[in-house]
Amino acid sequence: MADIAPMPSAVNPQSPVPLDTIPISPADGTNGTNGTDAVKEPPVEYVDTDPITVFHDPDNFNVKHPLMNSWTLWFTKPPSGKGDNWNDLLKEVISFDSVEEFWGIYNNITPTSELGLKSDYHLFKTGVRPEWEDPQNKHGGKWAFQFKEKKLINIDALWLHVMLAAIGETLEDENDGEVMGVVVNVRKGFYRIGLWTRSVGKPFPGGGEGKTAGGKGRTTEEGREVLLKVGRRFKDALGLKESEAVEFSGHTDSAHSGSTRAKAKFTV
């Protein structure tokens, strides 16, 4: 695995880490050209003012399809010892805001199944750090599910499906404002996939009923129903059986318990 570049300067903590600072595939460096230089065809010129689509020129099609939000990929490298600081292990990789950019990144990073133990990928909305302390996360929580039979699942397909659900905005309705990001953890005995939310289904402390996620003035019951709906969609994205429950816990509870898996507030 390639070394990770030093943490960006504190003056500009959002500076992306170049892609070559995390494990990149394919390892043979051929970039899919079988060791030969790819031949680029000259672009086709059009005089028609109508929008050019893939049906006009599939070989040279380069029109980008924008996403509703910009997203940032983060990577946590395995610790080298007990003295490692979390901030030194967590690295911002790159941000993107189109379908094409997502696939360009996904096709050039190491699959989850090939990462070292205690590695994580985090895919969060740009501007949100994958940390409990981030202002947009501190009142929130996480839906999560552990896959204990690592050899029996295709973690790469599962993680891809969840990422596509996140950037495709299918995990919540347009004005819910709950989904902050998704994460996959690689551990010795399991894989875990989580979905971070802005709230725990109730108004933010000290803010009254108007301070729920999205600023929609939801009641506690309405906030709970939105959160449960997100959990059910997350469960569907994972392809779980009805008998397999995803659990939700608050970040504050996790911090107090000293574990990433505090007692579940909700299950679906």
Describe this structure in words.
By secondary structure, the chain is an alpha+beta fold. Helix content is 19%, strand content 20%. The chain has helices at 86-89, 99-106, 155-167, 220-238, 251-257, and strands spanning 66-76, 90-98, 120-125, 141-147, 179-186, 191-197, 247-250, 266-267. Strand 5 and strand 6 form a beta hairpin. Residues 1-15 and 24-47 have low confidence and may be disordered. Keywords: Initiation factor, Protein biosynthesis, RNA-binding, Translation regulation.
By DSSP, the count of extended strands is: 8
Low-confidence stretches: 1-15, 24-47
Helix proportion: 10-25%
Query: What is the name of the CATH superfamily?
Result: RNA Cap, Translation Initiation Factor Eif4e
The secondary structure category is alpha+beta
Based on the coordinates given, report the CATH architecture: 2-Layer Sandwich
CA radius of gyration is: 20 Å
Report the β-strand fraction as a percent range. 15-25%
CATH topology: RNA Cap, Translation Initiation Factor Eif4e
**Count of helical stretches:** 5
Q: What is the general shape?
A: globular
Multimerization status? single chain
**Strand order in space, largest sheet:** 2-1-3-5-6-4-7-8
First and last CA, distance: 37 Å
CATH class: Alpha Beta
Following the backbone from N to C, one meets helices and strands in this order, namely EHEHEEHEEHEHE
What is the mean predicted local confidence, pLDDT? 79
Number of domains: 1
